[in-house]
Amino acid sequence: MLKFALVFLLVFTLSVIMFLYDARNLVTDQVKLTDVSMSTVHESNSVHGLIHLKPHTQSCKCHSMFTIGACGMEEVASLRGNDALWVSATAGLNRARLEQDILMMPHLQTISNYLPQLFKLNTTPVAMMNSDEAQVNKYISRASESLPFLLCNMHLYTPADVGKCTRKILEDTGQPLRIAFIGDSRVRNTMEQIIRSTQHEIKYRLPREPNEQNTSVEFLNQKSKINIPAIGDGIELRLHWSAYLDLDRNPKDVSQQGAKDLLEAWSRGTPGPDDGPIPDMAYITSGMWDASMFPEDAAADGFISTLEKMAPILKKLATRTIVLWHIHGPIKEWLALRDVPNGALDIMNRVSWRWLRDSNVWLWDSRTVLMLRELSECMYLNQSTLNTQIPTEWGCSDFQHAGKDVEDAAANMLWNLACNKVLEFSSEHCCA
């Protein structure tokens, strides 16, 4: 009996020891697991950008600010369900995205006609005025709080709003808001307008310049256009100039410079010291160089070849950050310095839809609608006897670039994406 009791006591003691050992290991493992999780979160934040932007990639209403009908074209059609022209245009646009033999631009043009007129001619008789003149309607803006195809509200950002947002992002995350612009002048001009419109509030500086508070945008046109940062209060903007997107970077020849190696590094999550951190948003275009250097068929073929190489990279990058792909707007054919037919641009846009629509890449065609509205107004003004009075900033004298009002509207969309949640706007706002 005594022997049995001793054996029982020994087994019990060993069981307690093993339990305590296992418990200690369990606690240790939990601590290690917590450390790994925190490390993973930290790595995720540093590699994949600001955590507050991630939910927006799953929000179709936020997405719809950039891509018309991101929540379904039926919902867009229902906004004016009794308007046969509107319903037809939305249905036609949807078909053009799916069927390669249907033009896209005419349907976007129809949708653009629902935007208010910004530019107009003042034709008041001379007897009642000093002279006739071209005027801008100061009470409307293409960066207005609502667009005819939107299911949510946009806030019209002031420089003070932007400064408040970027400083709060820096305070909350310890990191600036990072926006990269990859491509030619069509994305560069958006970055320029962002700097011009907010420079007195955000106080940008160029790290490579001896003058720390250089707020000029002339640096964007210098010969070497690789990885140029403009750093402000809680924000970092970078231009990565690319004439032919599917080529690697080539600082010795800007005309043969691409960004393929840069986008590959970002898509792998392994940016090098010369790449800059993975941005929170990347606005990318293939540019107009391919289209403007060749006839229509050759331009389209060249673009298809480019996108075959770049689409897998763009799709992979879009799993790490928000990728905005530029859908080409029209050129003003009566001003064209080179043979860039709008038909070729339409083909290129439809190819973009074919290659990228089933991915996380956002195809930015709401901007194209704004450009088309501007184009029709510029065409009207150009046919008048007052065309010499049109202000340069309206963009009516530039054959391929949008005017200031379109760039302001594009910048405002970016601010709504980056800042509406940060500034705690109501849920009726896009991206809030």
Describe this structure in words.
This protein is α/β, with parallel strands linked by helices and 432 residues long. It has a single domain (103-419), classed as SGNH hydrolase (Rossmann fold). The protein has 13 helices and eight strands. The protein has helices at residues 2-48, 60-63, 73-78, 84-98, 105-112, 159-173, 185-202, 260-268, 289-293, 296-317, 342-356, 366-382, 404-419; strands at 119-122, 133-136, 177-183, 228-232, 235-241, 281-284, 322-326, 362-364. The strands form two sheets. It has a six-stranded mixed beta sheet with strand order 4-5-3-6-7-8, with helices on both faces. It is globular, with a radius of gyration of 27 Å. It starts with a helix and ends in a 13-residue tail after the last helix.
Number of helices: 13
> What is the CATH T-level topology?
Rossmann fold
Strand content: 5-15%
What fraction, in percent, of the residue positions are helical? 40-55%
CATH superfamily: SGNH hydrolase
Count of spatially separate domains: 1
* pLDDT averaged residue by residue: 81
Give the total of beta strands. Answer: 8
Second CATH tier, the architecture: 3-Layer(aba) Sandwich
Weakly predicted, low-confidence segments: 1-48
Summarize the structure.
The protein has 432 residues and is α/β, with parallel strands linked by helices. The protein has 13 helices and eight strands. It has one domain: SGNH hydrolase (Rossmann fold).
List the topology elements.
Blueprint (H helix, E strand, L loop, with lengths): L1 H47 L11 H4 L9 H6 L5 H15 L6 H8 L6 E4 L10 E4 L22 H15 L3 E7 L1 H18 L25 E5 L2 E7 L18 H9 L12 E4 L4 H5 L2 H22 L4 E5 L15 H15 L5 E3 L1 H17 L21 H16 L13
Helix pairs in contact: 4-5, 5-12, 6-7, 7-13, 8-10, 10-11
